[in-house]
Amino acid sequence: MIEYTLSILVHLALVLLLSPLVTGFNRTFKARVQTRRGPGLFQPYRDLYKLLRKGMVIPETASWIFTATPFILFVTTLLASLLIPSVTAQAPLSLFGGVLAVVYLLALGRFFLALGGLDTGSSFGGLGSSREMTISAIAEPALMLAVFTVAIGAGSTNLSIVAQAGLSQSWRFLAPSQMLAFAALFIVLIAETGRIPVDNPATHLELTMIHEAMILEYSGPYLALIEWAAAIKQLVLMTILVNVFFPFGLSPDWSPVPVLISLGLFLFKLLLLSIIVALVEVTNAKMRLFRVPELLAIGFVLGALALVSTFLFQG
Amino acid sequence: MTIIILLLIPLVACGLSTAMRTRQWMEGIHVASAAASLFAAMLLAAEVLRQGPVSGINGFLYADHLSALVALLTAFVYLACAPYAVGYLRRDQALLFLAPSDDDMAALAKQRMYYSLTPLFVFCMFLVVVSNNLGVMWIAIEGTTLASIFLVTFYGRPTSLEAAWKYAMIGGVGLSMALFGTVLTYYSAHLVLGGDSVSALNWSVLVQQASHFDKPVMRLAFILILLGYGTKAGLAPMHTWKPDAYCEAPVPVAALMATAVLNCAIYGLARFYVLTVRCLGTAFASNLLILFGLLSVAVAVPFILVQRSSRRLLAYSSIDNGGIMVLGLGFGGALGALAMLLHMTYHSVTKPLLFLSVGNIQQHTGNDSLRKGARGLLHVLPISAPMFLLGALAVTGTPPFSMFQSEFMVLRAGFTGQHVGVSVLLIICLVIIFGGFFHHVAQLVLGPPSGAPREVMSRWKTYPVIGLAMLVIGMGFLMPAPLYQLIDGAARVLAVQQ
Amino acid sequence: MHFWQDVQFGNRMITLMAAVVLVLQIMMVTQRWLITNIRAFALQSFLMACIATTIAYYNNAPHIYAAAVLMLLVKVILLPVLFERLVTRIDILQEIEPLVNAPISVIVAGLLTLLAYVVAESFHRPDEPMGPASLGHNTLAVAIALFLIGFFMMVNRRKALTQVLALLSLENGIFLAAISLTYGMPMIVEIGIFFDVLVGAMVLAILVYRIRETFDSMDVSRLSRLKG
B480 lies in which domain range? Predict the structure, then answer.
């Protein structure tokens, strides 16, 4: 029991500490590719620390939803992260729910975030919420299709079991359904974490911003929670991508040596994926908002094809 | 040996025509090769009648009664069209259709194209009927499309490009379906025969093993083959390229396409039909054939009734007759197969007569319209016009002409095969087609003289028409015994019980 | 034994490549740039050649190597180069609006894929042992899907060149079926098929050029004077 509690705590610590680093790495790496110096690897930590110490301005028109949103977002995202195997093949809360729980915990957080954006009555908040919901309305089916494909392949929606199924069959990731699902999820990752062809989190340009428009009224510790939650969400999605499709080296239990190897491999896989994401961001221009659904539709088609091809190639 | 000679004659003619520098030589070679082809086809038929199926080059070539019959019909149409083409192209040259002005070299180049591509076209059709390998047969059928595509664009008008485009694209899709069907047939045979030897697609081998083929695969294969070769035969609803192509190609080529190519496509269909019947029983294949056959006949009806162009009228008549042949095959049994082959034979004699006389009319009046202009052609074209009327009567199945017999036989096969409803529908369609056809042709040919002077036509263009007309009349009363034996033998090849 | 000698690995590679082929086909359905279409077709044919090579490797079948090389020469190099030249020469870069717009055509393509699956399912033999000879049998559904989607593309497109490309990609489907079901038809037939495809494409390329000259456009929908 103590061991179990401990594993949850270790996991939480890992997620909380690692997520800003991933964001920081992404920014620094992009800057380096563009031959800028960049803000430095640990800037997100400094940002969070700064925001947590500051006072807050809460709009007069805001209701309880405005106050509750950061906490709900943070907690749901953190809970979702506990459902995904990151270092050990068994996720800490795997008995609590499978991939559907992950998807809906994230959706709940997004729902409240959109409400929070609407709550203050500012026009930017409403704009951001409406855009966010438009995109997620298309991204979510793609996500679900990809996830179902993986689940059908493994015979379970529990991500821990999926990862273990991947461990037991070498070359499983080469199956067309897996590859297509990976491609679909990658597009979803780009869209959901507000990466460049879809959104640019570094700017506050009213014509294009999505995520930033929603949280424009937040400040201080609330903003810190939201930013942190966004970083965790990015880590969650990336972990799904690397550990569900390429579960090499996941440790079966908490014995130290395999865990260390597993941790190293996990960081390495995350590094590779972040580099790819950063390269996509650097080599692409931001899309017009009306073209974004087309990109997501490609993701949807890939997800559908993934699902179809599990049946197509069974012979 | 005869088979190889049969294949070589048009091939050599094609090569020689490409090399010739004067028109007279090309014309001579063309007519000679046509005559030699018919002779070789007759020899082949005699050989088959004497000693049964013959084969050549290690079983690569194979000719039984059915092959010999279709080869004979092809060669016959080739010979009927060859001398006519000479007169037709000379007249075209005089009318400056071939080259813009008195540019003799350009006109010669056009004629060289005609005289070399047509034998190649015929060669492909011979290869269709004598190849044993179903894959090679497919290649040869695709070859007929490729060889004739530049004959369709012969006059280089915008409309001929349009027709050629439709011909190429619809034909291409259709033939790819047929190829898929061939692949699946090979697969369903491969599961039984094993091995990957070259003979694994040979019809003579397949037909003996057909009852063991994989049934679901064969079912799909036959559907694809029917759609594919049905496109080539111009069965509805894949018939849309046909009127355009017949309208734009030079008349002798159109005559070849309307008869010989139709025969070849139905020949290909029949070969697969035999395999399918042996594998799956008669019901499946027959029902499909009856469906497409009846549809073709029915589709032809409205288009014939409202037709404005005489060449398109003939195209729809060809769709109609293709449908009747497929119906005959679909009704099945010895009677159905015999009726189908008789219809094929009579059609191959009658349809060229129509095309050639329409060609004469068209070259005289300058268009092929049924509506405007020409009336009372009887007085202007004393040979071609009545022959056209005669052919029209024959092709719609008026007694005592031969096609009445074969259509009657198809109907009899339908009634004996318990397809009463289909047969009744067929009778209704045939009657309407007769009415429409006769209405158009009578308007064109009969009527008061328009006062135009009588046309003095070249003998190249009239003698083939007269010859064909005499054959059409003669065949109504008399069928040469060897030809009947050949048809009967071919019907035995088709009328398999499973 | 190296891992690449394992039939299971070969099977995975073939199915993966077949999946990419299908993705490319669906991409071609929505793509309006002619050059991109041509390159997608070339890539698709290249993957076909790779599939053929894989099957040839595990079956030790030299004549399939020959088919792969033919594929490479004709459909990966020769025809795409010819077509790209044609596009630059007639200076038409983009397809006009197809009959059915992109999202709906993707849905149609998806439905056709499902249909292909249903058709291929009836041939499914679960009892067949996994071996070199049965390599790629599970790509039959993809082959039929390529065939059907190619057919749909031919109907849907209005430029002459894209119609030709659709026809050729449809033939790719047949090639896949031939090579995976029967590991190559008898050699003589393969050569004939490629010869035909080559000659056919040449004829069509010439025709496309002449249509452009005569109509000043490659728009097939303007070829509609012949009626009835």
Answer: 299-498
